[in-house]
Amino acid sequence: MSLLEVTNLHATVGAQDQQKAILKGLNISVNPGEVHAIMGPNGSGKSTLANVLSGRPGYTVTDGSMILANTNLADMEPHERAQLGLFLAFQYPVEIPGVSNMEFLKASVDSLARARGEEQPNTAAFIKKVRILAASVDLDPQFLKRGVNEGFSGGEKKRNEIMQLLLLEPKLAILDETDSGLDIDALQVVAEGVNRYKNSNNGVVLITHYQRLLDYIIPDFVHVLADGKIIQSGDKSLALELEDKGYAWLT
Amino acid sequence: MADLSLPQAVTLPNYFSQDRLALPAQILNGEDMPSALTAALNSTLHRERWKYSKTAPVLEGLIRTMNLPTIIGGEQAGVQISQAPEQNVRFSFDLSQAPEAFARLCYAQEALFIHIEQTLKSPLEIHHAGSTVPILISLGTNAEATLLEHFAGNLQPQNTLWISLAERSHLKHSRNSLEAAELHWQYLCVDIGKNADYLLNNHAAGAGLRRQDIHIRLSGQGANAELISAAVISGKLALDQQITLEHLVANGKSKQVVHNIVADGGKCTFNGRIHIHEGANGTDATLANKNLGLGKNATINTKPELEIYTDDVTCAHGATIGQLSDQELFYLSSRGISPEAAQALLSEGFLRQCTQGPLAEAALPILINAIKQEHDA
Lengths: 251, 377
Prior knowledge:
The structure holds two protein chains of two kinds.
Chain A: E1 4-13, E2 20-30, E3 35-39, H1 46-54, E4 59-68, E5 71-72, H2 78-84, E6 86-89, E7 96-100, H3 101-115, H4 123-136, E8 147-148, H5 154-168, E9 172-176, H6 184-197, E10 203-207, E11 221-226, E12 229-234, H7 236-245
Parallel strand pairs in A: 3-10, 3-11, 6-9, 9-10
Antiparallel strand pairs in A: 1-2, 1-4, 4-5, 7-8, 11-12
Helix pairs in contact in A: 2-3, 4-5, 5-6
Chain B: H1 14-17, H2 25-28, H3 33-41, H4 44-49, H5 56-61, E1 70-72, E2 79-82, H6 99-108, E3 112-116, E4 124-129, E5 135-139, E6 144-152, E7 158-165, E8 170-177, E9 183-192, E10 197-205, E11 209-218, E12 224-233, E13 238-247, E14 253-263, E15 267-276, E16 283-294, E17 299-308, E18 313-322, H7 326-333, H8 339-352, H9 360-376
Parallel strand pairs in B: 3-5, 4-6, 5-7, 6-8, 7-9, 8-10, 9-11, 10-12, 11-13, 12-14, 13-15, 14-16, 15-17, 16-18
Antiparallel strand pairs in B: 1-4, 2-3
């Protein structure tokens, strides 16, 4: 049984009187243990897919369905989707001055535990765990005291996203261009983090422009998204072919 | 609009006759005090500063009985408390800025003079309960001190404080004005000497009306002033902050950051004026006032003002009125945090950016609670 089942998804962006159709009948099915890469030209709807799945305000689903772990996402608030096990690594992680990273992470972990009827972690053990995870993605533990992403470099913000992924252990991780703006060392750290996270029970959807990331995180499937639909699916070799020929031959 | 007048005739306190304190410029120039005060009270400048709060109840309160505040740390070495000023201490009294404050000094006749001659080991703490006698604090050359002020009194307390900082002295001033009151008026005037440093951490909650007049003068070269303030004004309460900061001479530096949360029905007025005088070259002045409106019917008036009479200055000011950022809310939600918890985290974060210094720990929970009460109501 699949972890994520997206069927005939249609979605628009924008205020009610000027909605613009972006997703036009998208299908994707992710099974536990699988890594799916989604590639495609600018404006094809890749980030919209990530935003619609995570419930970002401003997007409207007009048709089709999104099922995660047997639960229909459509009627759920963003925080409920996260509690169900959905995680979005942001393309542009948000800076929140005045709220420390540690406080934010604790609020997140506590909320998830409460929603799942689990015990909230003991604070000392929690802090220790977070410090170790931060170090494992090359983030200085000093960052944990600072405001969320405040004054972080682009690479540090992305590594912070991966640290959260490792901490929260979601069922499904959507990485929205996590590789963009990263140098090769940071890219390897990010990829190592994703590989560490992935197991036979969870799934990964990688949204990327570049084949380069897929040298480090090997996808089981590569999909090409164009004009709001998946127009081609294949294995890793499809990514290499795209790198070579571009998208024109498909669209 | 009817002319404003003082409730009683004023006479100068005796300590002025000892020639130790400089009289306000107007009096030195030969104006008689009653007419100078009346003119100042009815000036355009004054009316502008009292645009959103009624002056009359404050003026009536000037002659109300005053008590002595409780002072902790007054016995330590380096502190002298007396009823007359030290020699060679310069306080600045500006009739045009605050005629009511000078009038109060006159009505009180007696005042508390606190001189800090050398660096203090422990903070000096002042606890005000109700209307307290005027206080004049001076720091000697090179002296360093921490001043903590707590305000209480639920009726119509008035508190007036003048501070004079001699060369290279440093004062860290923190004050919490968090208790309920019908009408609380606080006047503070700080004169900062050459290469001296002044830091104010101001924490305030709303009251029937809480009026904070703050006048900071950088009167010595290389003086440095910093004002960091956080306030929460919730349902039907009000805060009116009137801040004037003057750069009188060269190479002064000032930074002001004021964050106010105004929740349902609350009313907040902020008027921050920076005045850079002719000859104050190399001034570096910044002012940021951010207001966060929560719930319904919050009233926020904000006016940052710059008056600059020198070319060679760096100056930045800004005021914003906004609500919680959708992007920040979504980021927190995407990590499983409920909208209510996310709102609380973000508004606390907004406050925390300006809740600093030794009284921050006491202030923060009270301010946070003031937001929460509003949302539970």
